Each structure stands twice: as C-alpha cells, then as structure tokens.
Amino acid sequence: MDVKDLKPELIWKCFDEITKIPRPSCHEEQIRDFLLKFAADNGVEVRTDKVGNVVMSKPATPGHENAPVVILQSHMDMVAEKNSNVSHDFMKDPIDTYVDGDWVKARGTTLGADNGIGMAAAMAVMIDKTLEHGSVEALFTVNEEIGLEGAQNLGKDMITGSMLLNLDSEDDGEIFVGCAGGIDTTATFTYHRSYTPENFKYMRVSVSGLLGGHSGGDIHLGRANANKIIARFIWDCSQSWDITVCSIEGGNLRNAIPREAYAVFGIHSEHHEALMHHLKKYAADIRNEYKGVEPSMELNIEETERPEFCLDSDTSIALVRAIYSAPHGVYSMSRDLEGLVETSTNLASVKHVGDNKIVVTTSQRSSVESRKNDMAGQVEAHFQLAGAEVTHSDGYPGWAPNMESPIMKISADAYEELFGVKPAIKAIHAGLECGLFLAKYPHLDMVSFGPTMTGVHSPDEQLLIPTVDKFWRHLCRVLEKVAQL
User: Fold this and answer.
1) CA–CA separation, 364 vs 160, rounded Å?
2) Whole-number CA gyration radius for the chain
3) Which residue among the candidates 16, 28, 114, 144 is catalytic per the annotation?
C-alpha cells in the first residue's frame, strides 16, 4: 500500500504530496511555491510576508461567522538527516516513503512528518467542504528547525485569530500547553596547521549506528552522544601515548543528538598494536554502558593515508578535552510538572570550517528563562577555559502553561468525547513557536497536539498510521466546538 492510499484519504494525500517536495531548513522555496499553487488551484485566499511565511484563509461555514477565528499552525521545513551510507540530495530528491505495518517510514532519511503531517492537516481543512467551523487561518512558517525564523519575523497582520492550534506535537492522547525556550551557544577554535610526523601511523576511528533523536523530546532518554564517544577515546589514548589529531567531526544539526562522528589521528608506529587492543576494550566498555539503549552502535578503526597537516598540539589538546568534558544531557527536572525536563544542553556538532577553524555547536533549553541563560553561560565559560571564542544566538522564549485556557478545555473535551479517555495535559521540553507568537500576540489562546511519531530528527523517524485518523477527527471536532461559541 502506498501512503496516498491510506485513510483518511484527504490528509494522507496531502502528506504524500508534501514528501515529494524538497524542503530542508533555510530552503523552503519549493514547498512555498507548492503551497501557493495549492491555494490557487483550490480557490483559497492566500498571503505571504517578506520572510516567506504563508497564510491561507477559509471563511466560516454559514451560521458560524461570529465564532472565534482559529489559526492552524505548522512549519514548512524539515530536518535533513540521512544515514552515511545513503545517497540522497535533500535539495532535489523526494523522500522515499513506505508503509511498514502500522507505520509510515522513509528509507535511510528523516521522514519529514515533523511537521509535514501538521501541514497536511491544515491543507485538508482548507479544502474539505464537509466540515463545520468558524473562520480558519492556516499559518505555515519557515525555518522552524533552525532558529524559528518564521515565527521570529512573522509579518504584521498575517494572522487575525484569537485561538491557535499548533499541529507540531508528536504524541497521541496528549495536549501540550507549554514548552521550553532555547538558545544556541557556538564555540570556535582557531588552530595552526602543522606537518604530520613521518614515523606515525594514521587511523580513522568512527562511531555510527546511534539512535540520536530530538535534542528536546529525546534528551531524557540517555542516548549516547557520538561526539563525546570519539573525544573520550582520543583523550583516553592521549593519556598513554603521544597523539596527533588531524581532524575530528560529528553531528549535523543543533537540535539533533549526534548519531555519527569520527576522528583522524596519528600515533607512533610502535604503539599501533597496543592501540588496537585498547580500542577493543574501549568498545566493550561503551557497549556495556549503553546496553539496552544503543543496540546498533558500531565503533570502528581503520588505517588511513598520512594527511599532510594536523592541528597544532595546544589546540588539539584543548579541543579534545573541551568536547570530552562539555556538559550534555539533562541538567534539571521541573518542580512544577512531574516528569518534565526543565533544563538541558545538547553538544550538537563539531565541524571544520575553512583551513584553520573548528566550530562546536551546542543548544540549551529550559522552561525557566533564567535557567536557560545560566546553562548557556556555563557552556560559554567551559569553552572559554579551553581558549575558544564563544557566541550565542538570539534565542527564543518559552511558553508558560495557562491552566485556565478555554481552547485547552475545548480540546480536552473533544478528545474525551471522541475516544472515551481524558488526554494528558502536558508541557514539552522541545521548543515550539508558540512562545514567539504569544510575545507578538499576547491575546492568543493556544494548545498543541498531533499524532504519534518516534525517532524525529533522525532517519528512524516514523509516523503511527492509526493515530493520524485520531488526530484528524480530533482536529475537526475542535473546530466544530469552537464554531458553537
């Protein structure tokens, strides 16, 4: 069965079309053109702003013109992650989707259900002539995954509604009423290139097969960080032998836990056999530490040709020490909502830039603004001690829960009426655009919900088919209930 043949037909057909359109973060031109054509082909009013956000508008069904205007909000971009052995160009190639039992998956890449299924739901509402609702606006934002740019720069008067349904959550049966704020901290190491010693053997050590995942939603699961595993091995070796580091890289995106990393380094030829023995012991220790957490972890080493240059000794020592000792993971749990991560940090990526710089990207999240800034300050101080130049992004605010929210009650009642169980009312440690919308439009009453998906921000991303039907029915019932106000 193909994705477009799943039920309910309208939402799945829209999602299938979305997966064929390249839309990595910062490159939403093709998906924006697709949305504008979709609106034109279906006679839907549409407008855009200078950063590329798109809003479609649908008038109320007769008799409900005085109901509150509801905004359906989703984001256009997707996280572009793939396995290293997969050939895929996110700027050109469609996502290769398939149905596996109750799940929709992609072959070797992220699926883009985050937030393609939210987009598909909003599009379906725009063209479904059977629904009962007040006026509806569908807001599609750009560059959510890297910097929340669309929400940060939403054009004046783009939206007029008073209730907003964020369609960017990942757990059926849960309604979210709050989220963490976030900030990125970047450390830049500048090094001098040195010639590599001739009497050394050069090795490439790599870690792969990690689960990775969303740096907000999955940070509490204790998954391995590829950057730290590689840095720990290099540091450990340096305690016994002279090591020269030629390169070290890992991770891709600020909001993804790194799944793969590698380093190229040299060691005196006479220590090669001892190094190989040490790797076997290290690999066994790491597998034991993450037993039951990282079932597919692979740690490999192979000889490589002698590179012409390596990092100068002082910088390589400082870099390896800094990555190895950098904070990563959960820092504190919420005292207000049981089980909610309050503050965390993600050691996201290590990249060579130009001929003499290595950039380490990290991201901090917290539902408490001062804790977010404190965590960012600690990361800054850590890398400053290692001699790096440190900068921060502008960051984005959190969304404080409003437990008296009318749209929260409507959404919860609608879910219970349909499925006979009360949904869980929660806050999420991941960042949503809601905090930025609230800063611009303080009157907004908001909730977030969606179908079940797992493995987001990684090639393991998958979407649970039965929950998409529930998501669609829930969304339609919420619109019906708001129409009665």
Assistant:
1) 32
2) 24
3) 144
Tell me if residue 77 is catalytic: yes
Please give the pLDDT value at position 217.
87
59, two tokens: 């008038």
Residue-wise pLDDT tens digits, 194-226? 999 999 999 999 999 999 998 998 999 999 999
| Token pair for 440 | 């611009």
Q: Between 452 and 214, name the one with better pLDDT.
A: 452
Model confidence band, residue 401 (pLDDT cutoffs 50, 70, 90): confident
Evaluate the omega torsion of the peptide bond into residue 252 and state whether it is cis, within 30 degrees of 0: no
DSSP 197: P
* Cβ-proximal residues to 425 (8 Å cutoff; 6+ apart), any chain: 174, 175, 177, 403, 408, 412
> Omega into 8 within 30° of 0, i.e. cis?
yes
> For residues 72 and 479, what is the distance between their CA atoms, to the nearest angstrom?
10
Q: Which of 28, 77, 342, 445 is catalytic?
A: 77
Q: What is the per-residue pLDDT for 260?
A: 96
DSSP 457: T
| pTM score above 0.90 | no
Whole-angstrom distance, CA of residue 120 vs CA of residue 84: 29
Residue 189 to residues 225, 244, 316, 460, Cα–Cα distance (Å): 20, 16, 9, 32
Of 71, 33, 69, the C-alpha closest to 55 is 71
pLDDT at residue 34, as a whole number: 98
Average pLDDT over residues 439-449: 94
pLDDT at 146 > cutoff 90:
no
Query: Position 378: which residue type?
Result: Q
| Distance from the Cα of residue 20 to its chain's centroid | 20
Q: Is 74 exposed, middle or buried (0-12, 13-18, 19+ CB in 10 A)?
A: buried
Does the pLDDT at position 66 exceed 90? yes
Enumerate residues 6+ apart whose C-beta is below 8 A from 23. Answer: 30, 31, 76, 77, 78, 112
Residue 51's pLDDT is what?
97
141/426 Cα distance (integer angstroms): 24
Quote the longest CA-to-CA distance of the chain.
Answer: 85
* Dihedral sign computed on CA atoms, order 22, 24, 30, 34: positive
Q: What is the pLDDT of residue 336?
A: 77
* Burial (Cβ within 10 Å: 0-12, 13-18, ≥19) of residue 374: middle
Give me the pLDDT at residue 454, please: 94
Token digits of residue 6: 């799943």
- The stretches of 294-427 forming alpha helices (DSSP H) are 313-325, 369-385, 406-419
- Find all residues with CB under 8 Å of 295, minimum gap 6, and list them: none
3-class secondary structure, 186: strand
